[in-house]
Every structure is written in structure tokens, then in C-alpha cells.
Design brief:
Number of strands: 0
Low-confidence stretches: 94-116
CATH topology: Rna Polymerase Sigma Factor, Chain: A
Helix content: 55-70%
Distance between the termini: 60 Å
Radius of gyration: 18 Å
Strand content: under 5%
Mean pLDDT: 80
CATH architecture: Orthogonal Bundle
Number of helices: 8
Structural class: mainly alpha
Number of domains: 1
Length: 190
């Protein structure tokens, strides 16, 4: 039984697996905003995020027959997108952008509700995230922006659960150290 939030989703998946392009278009419509947001959060560039999202859906379409219905479709597609973005970052370094510079095309960069932050704080946080290793960055984004469990992040990034925990710990420590260093520098500069 597929793990879905939308009852029609299971029908769309089955039809798309049988070659129904309109059914797959329904899946794209349902997930285009979260996939674009993930790509944008990792890559930080609107054009690159649009290309990555499109390529992610193309990969999902090509491999739809291998989709495991016991897994949430959203997590499966987010996995494809995050892996694609990590590969892009490994091939070339793309700077990320602060939350407030997100494109205003009806697609919003969604931060966790607990992280309601102003533009300056957002810029500082994004600059620190940009300095992380691409896999660490993807793990942080998947966990904090998409509330993905550690085990699912591990499957997404081809890591063990303990490796994800280790990467998350290291990334959080780097973010905290960067944040503290910036605070100390700001206080000594005033």
C-alpha cells in the first residue's frame, strides 16, 4: 500500500508507471514547489534550481517503475533532487543565496516554522550553510526544511543512519562555531 497523503496519488503513480503522461504531469504539479524549493535551497541560483528540478522530474519519470510504494513518493522525489543537486555542487561550486532573495514566482523558500528569522539573520545563516560540504548541506536542508527522518536522509544520500548523525552533528557544530565567531567579530568591531 503506497504511503501517500493524497488518495489520488496512488492512482497517478500506477497510471504513470503504465505510461500515462498526464498522470505523471499530476505528480509534477503536486511536487514542483517542494522540489524547486529544495533545489534552490541547495544550489542558491534560480536558473540552476529550475534546471535541477526539471532534471529531477525527468529522472523520476525514467525510473518510476523502480519506485517502492512503501516509501513516501515525496521522499523518493526529494532524494532524486537532493542527489542531483549534490552532484552539481561537486562538479562546480555554486553559491547559495539568502532566503530573502528567493524568486517571487509564487514559489516560496519554506524554512521551518521554528526558524522565523529576519533578513539579516537569514543571510548570515545561508552564508554559513554555503560553507558546508555539499552532502552535509543536503542533510541539513532535508532534515530542517523538509523534516525528513535521519534514516530516510541516509537512504537519500547513500549513507548509514550513523553517518547521517555524524554529518548532522559536524554540520551543526560548524554552523554554531561560525555563528559564534561572527558574533564575537561583530562585538569587537563595535
Amino acid at each position: 500500500m503506497p504511503t501517500t497523503h493524497n488518495p489520488e496519488e496512488a492512482v497517478w503513480i500506477a497510471r504513470a508507471q503504465d505510461g500515462d503522461d498526464m498522470a505523471f504531469a499530476n505528480l509534477v504539479d503536486a511536487y514542483q514547489a517542494p522540489i524547486f524549493n529544495l533545489c534552490y535551497r541547495i544550489l542558491g541560483d534560480t536558473a540552476a534550481a529550475e534546471d535541477a528540478a526539471q532534471e529531477s522530474f525527468l529522472k523520476a519519470y525514467r525510473h518510476l517503475r523502480r519506485y517502492d510504494p512503501e516509501r513516501k513518493l515525496a521522499n523518493w522525489i526529494l532524494t532524486i533532487a537532493s542527489n542531483h543537486c549534490v552532484d552539481m555542487l561537486r562538479r562546480r561550486r555554486i553559491p547559495t543565496l539568502p532566503l530573502e532573495s528567493a524568486p517571487q514566482q509564487g514559489l516560496l523558500i519554506q524554512a521551518p516554522e521554528a526558524m522565523v528569522i529576519d533578513a539579516e539573520t537569514s543571510g548570515r545563516l545561508q552564508a554559513l550553510i554555503e560553507e558546508l560540504d555539499p552532502v552535509d548541506r543536503a542533510a541539513i536542508v532535508l532534515h530542517y526544511w523538509y523534516d525528513m527522518p535521519l534514516g530516510e536522509i541516509g537512504r537519500s544520500l547513500n549513507l548509514t543512519r550513523s553517518a547521517v548523525k555524524s554529518r548532522m552533528f559536524r554540520a551543526r557544530r560548524a554552523l554554531a562555531q561560525g555563528w559564534t565567531t561572527e558574533d564575537v567579530e561583530a562585538q569587537s568591531g563595535s
